[in-house]
Amino acid sequence: MRAQPKASHFIDGAYIEDDAGAPITCIYPATGETLAELHEATPALVDKALAAAKRAGPEWAALSGTERGRILRRAADMMRDENRALSEIETLDTGKPLQETLVADATSGADALEYFGGLAATIAGETFRLPGGDWAYTTRDPLGVCVGIGAWNYPTQIACWKAAPALACGNTMVFKPSETTPLSALRVAEILKEAGLPDGVFNVLQGRGGVGASLVTDPRVAKVSLTGSVPTGQKVYAAAAEGLRHVTMELGGKSPMIVFADADLDRAVSGAILGNFYSSGQVCSNGTRVFVERTCRDAFVDRLRERLKGVVMGDPLDEATNYGPMVSEAQMNIVLGYIEKGVAEGATLAHGGRRANRDGFFVEPTVFTGVTDDMTIAKEEIFGPVLSVLDFDSEDEVIRRANDTPFGLAAGVFTDDIRRAHRVAAAFRAGTCYINHYNAAPVEMPFGGSKMSGVGRENSLAAIEHYTERKTVYVGMGDVEAPF
Ligand SMILES: NC(=O)c1ccc[n+]([C@@H]2O[C@H](COP(=O)([O-])OP(=O)(O)OC[C@H]3O[C@@H](n4cnc5c(N)ncnc54)[C@H](O)[C@@H]3O)[C@@H](O)[C@H]2O)c1
Ligand SMILES: C[N+](C)(C)CCCC=O
Predict the structure, then answer these.
(1) Which residues does a 6 A CB cutoff place in the pocket of ligand 2?
(2) What is the mean pLDDT of residues 54-74?
(3) Mean pLDDT score, 101-130
(4) Is 287 helix (H, G, I), strand (E, B) or coil?
(5) Exposed end of the chain (fewer CB within 10 Å): N or C?
(6) pLDDT digit string (tens) for 407-459?
(7) For residue 275, how far is its CA from the centre of ligand 2 (angstroms)?
(8) ipTM for this model
């Protein structure tokens, strides 16, 4: 199986290679086969990409929002037309089942391009009447060259969630995908060019953390948007602060999902499946601490185990498969290490718990019961298919325990009591909360984290705040009175 792109990087409207860069081998996680051989960007290519983005900026920003938006919306249509091919690349790159990538990756990227393409023409300032006939107005100006850095779980979505608002606002971007999943961002760049994007406005560079770090501190860069882990976020935020660069940080989580006994249990089980086993658990916002009211815990676990009989583990390119491998051998070993710790610390393995007996990096969907707040599996982000069931007895108790984490990405509550639902949502300290649902992320709503899970928001009108800055102009209409 091969998925070799034309070259490793896409700079100034063209593919480009530099064999001097350290090799990056792209592996199909379902079999361990090599899909493609790429190279990290050399310092010369980093400079070339930033120079292209800097040069292209003024002309791109000078277009009207309508003109910029038209290109983004055309790219959205092209992505939808090409959804199957894009989904196949995503499946090869990540191992996620085609059944998922057909509906959640390029389509989500297209939604962002369409939404921000539509919004581009509406980005405007305000006017203020002031005493004596004076007045003031604001403009919303682009920031300049933005750097996007991606994680490996949603490569196409991440590229588009960053590029679409940045470009709609008149910025340019250098995007560095994760070194684990380098393929799809290149096709996104090509599509944008085919849709009419001027050369240099969106560039893709491959590389590991070192390439990312060299982008973050370059004086030409005005903003950095990272999707990644908390430790990387801390480093990138600190490096960006040195130049007082704007940041968006979409980081990790250890989110709670609370199931009250009055909830529709089948719906709650569906939520727990979506919030733990979709993308084989490799989702930032997953509700991995499932707090279940003690009186319905056994019924919940029984139904969950019954539903897990519906897992179809297999070739991710087969549309019947609904459960794929971990993205890499390294990630599989991290997840297996956490499962071992869960057992060693006294949690009860209620389902799964092993590497699957097949090629590739598959880990069985795993459910622990009897998990307590102090166990490692209840405290640390695992980023794999490991669901922990924790018992609780009262609303006050569970809210306190749900919030007792340094993370604050997402949180969910399942209950049929409408007042309780909103009371609990109000009490959550998390950026994205769900009532009787989990992990939906339509482009219309802000998505992002509180506390250690992030800074800023992606999607929605909120993203415009993060890719523009206001300029205020005071207009004097009368005499200027001075003290002497
Ligand atoms: N909040 C969100 O929206 C969201 C979405 C997806 C993933 N994530 C998080 O991402 C993590 C998994 O992804 P990962 O393993 O790729 O994360 P990671 O932090 O290892 O890497 C993320 C990206 O940062 C780059 N990088 C690493 N060190 C860097 C440095 N010093 N300077 C600049 N760039 C650097 C990497 O090359 C990669 O492209 C999880 O913690 C997950 O929760 C968050
Ligand atoms: C759209 N999801 C499924 C919430 C994923 C957002 C990105 C997190 O990993």
Answers:
(1) 153-154, 283-285, 439, 441
(2) 98
(3) 98
(4) coil
(5) C
(6) 999 999 999 999 999 999 999 999 999 999 999 999 999 999 999 999 999 99
(7) 10
(8) 0.97
Q: Which residues of 186-206 are buried (b: 16+ CB within 10 A; e: fewer)?
A: bbbbbbbbebebbebbbbbbb
pLDDT, averaged across the chain: 98
Distance 96 CA to ligand 1 centre (A): 18
Cα of 291 from ligand 2 centre, angstroms: 21
CA 295 to chain centre: 36
Identify the structural domains of the chain with CATH numbers, from first to last: 9-252+453-471 (3.40.605.10), 256-435 (3.40.309.10)
Residue whose Cα lies nearest atom 34 of ligand 1: it is 212
φ/ψ of residue 410, rounded to 5: -140, 170
pLDDT at residue 36 tops 90: yes
Phi–psi pair at 51, nearest 5 degrees: -65, -40
Is the pTM higher than 0.80? The answer reads yes
Segment 202-224, tens digit of pLDDT? 999 999 999 999 999 999 999 99
Residue from 219, 245, 261, 235 nearest 54 by CA = 219
Which residues have CB under 6 Å of ligand 1?
149-154, 176, 178-179, 208-209, 212-213, 216, 227-229, 232, 235-236, 250-253, 284, 381, 383, 409, 449, 454
> Minimum-distance ligand to the CA of 111?
2
Q: Which ligand number lies closest to the CA of residue 408?
A: 1
Neighbours of 442 (CB within 10 A): 11
Per-residue DSSP letters for 407-472?
EESEEEEE-S-HHHHHHHHHH--SSEEEES--S---TTS-B--EETTEES-BSTTHHHHHHEEEEE
Task: Give residue 1's pLDDT.
Answer: 82
If you measure from the C-alpha of residue 106 to the centroid of ligand 1, how many angstroms do you get, rounded to a whole number?
A: 20
Distance CA 64, CA 74 (A): 16
Q: Determine the atom of ligand 2 nearest the C-alpha atom of 278.
A: 3
Here the tokens at position 266 are 């089948």
Which of 40, 190, 250, 293 is labelled catalytic? 250
